[in-house]
Design goal:
Layout lengths: L2 E5 L4 H12 L3 E6 L14 E5 L5 H15 L4 E4 L14 H29 L1 E7 L7 H4 L3 H20 L4 E9 L5 H6 L11 H12 L10 E4 L4
Parallel strand pairs: 1-2, 1-4, 2-3, 4-5, 5-6, 6-7
Helix pairs in contact: 1-7, 2-3, 3-5
């Protein structure tokens, strides 16, 4: 049984992804920020839920090390924690930059670093980041400046990890959704047909594919999941 770390497991995407992996026969070690959020996940023998502040490097490192000690092998780490903020260059100051950097980059880096080093030692593993289209396209990102900048670092990090792991069965993948179909996004995009939005279930399928043997030949992948938006 493969062991998969899923951060941000209680979010709109995280709950769907966690269920997908449990239903597909994986052991899931999920993180939530507060014990109250653990109730959003259905109890299962193959689900372990840990309370972790992923903006804290020491706490994140300890979480990964505990997982390695208990299960011996981390096969995949899916970094789903993130945050969103609007604002162009005129509205974006240092506080906004730091918050988005912490939520979208540090929470991923603090887990990816020890997990990646463990995977290199074991000779296999999959690191997966959730990117964002505004980080790739200036027209989309100019009014979401702090968010887009925070997410853009994940693409460079994946490049560096893939170069470090060249020749080994360890890869870093960036999944890039457009707009995910959530209650909040439906509220703020009333003119968009929900059918055109990316379903959390679609992303869950892509994430499971990436860590499965079906994707064994992929290297340095950036997968754009845009549906019709």
């Amino acid at each position: 049984m493969k062991t998969i770390i899923i951060t941000g497991a209680s979010g709109n995407l995280g709950t769907v992804v966690t269920k997908k992996f449990i239903d597909s026969g994986y052991r899931v070690v999920a993180t939530v920020i507060h014990e109250d959020f653990a109730k959003d996940l259905t109890a299962h023998p193959n689900l372990q839920v840990d309370i972790v502040n992923l903006t804290n490097e020491t706490e994140s490192f300890s979480f990964v090390q505990r997982t390695i000690s208990k299960y011996k092998q981390i096969d995949g780490a899916l970094m789903l924690v993130g945050g969103f903020a609007a604002g162009d260059i005129h509205a974006t100051g240092g506080a906004e930059l730091q918050k988005q950097y912490s939520l979208n980059f540090e929470t991923a880096y603090f887990v990816a670093r020890p997990a990646f080093n463990h995977m290199l030692e074991k000779g296999k593993g999959r690191i997966v980041f959730i990117g964002a289209r505004p980080a790739l396209h200036a027209a989309d990102g100019k009014n979401l400046l702090a968010y887009a900048l925070g997410k853009s670092l994940l693409f460079k990090l994946a490049e560096f990890l893939n170069e470090e792991a060249r020749g080994k069965n360890v890869t870093a993948t960036v999944i890039v959704p457009s707009t995910i179909d959530t209650p909040v996004n439906r509220k703020y995009m009333p003119l968009t047909n929900p059918v055109d939005l990316v379903k959390p279930e679609q992303l869950a399928d892509v994430l499971e594919f990436v860590v499965s043997e079906k994707s064994s030949g992929l290297r340095e992948p950036v997968l754009k999941v845009y549906n019709n938006v």
